[in-house]
Write a structure and sequence with these properties.
InterPro entries: Anti-sigma-factor_SerPK, HATPase_C_sf, HATPase_dom. The chain is of the alpha+beta class and 151 residues long. 32% of the residues lie in helices and 30% in strands. Strands 1-2-3-4-6-5 form a 6-stranded antiparallel β-sheet, covered by helices on one side. The N terminus is likely disordered.
Length: 151
């Protein structure tokens, strides 16, 4: 479900930024990766058509890849459900993925000899920002993706 809400975080006193938000919960089974990707793509489509938010083709492609990688990691390293929070603030998409795993993910440095474990390396190369926070249960990985192409 999408919500349009005032956001006071990071705003100057007395100013408001409007954001569009959707949340989804996935069971953590094999189909949740594709379901999360479809959910994020549909959210961007609704933001574009229903709210007039400019969303580039690149932003949709990056979002699909980033969601796939983050949900894959959540499913692989943490048992149980995966929660996804999508929020558009200004011209940026913020994606937060929560899982129950206590261990924080490690972004490995580039190594062309390494087989596998390149997911977070790819994610951090594509996003504007990447952060991980511990929660009372589990962790939350949050990334920000620009919705417009750089000029």
């Amino acid at each position: 479900m999408d919500a349009k809400c005032p956001d006071h975080n990071g705003s100057a006193p007395g100013s408001e930024q409007t954001y569009i938000q959707a949340m989804a919960a996935f069971e953590g089974d094999g189909g949740c990766i594709a379901e999360a990707r479809r959910t994020a793509t549909a959210f961007l489509g609704r933001a574009r058509s229903g709210h007039g938010v400019p969303v580039s083709v690149r932003a949709v492609d990056v979002t699909q890849l980033v969601v796939s990688e983050l949900v894959t990691n959540a499913r692989k390293y943490a048992p149980g459900p995966v929660l996804m929070d999508l929020r558009i603030v200004g011209d940026t998409l913020e994606i937060a993925i929560w899982d129950s795993g206590p261990h924080l993910p490690v972004v490995h440095s580039a190594d062309p000899e390494r087989l596998g474990r390149h997911g977070l390396e790819i994610v951090t190369a594509l996003v504007e920002s990447y952060r991980v926070s511990t929660e009372p249960v589990g962790k939350r990985v949050t990334v920000r993706i620009p919705l417009r192409d750089a000029h």
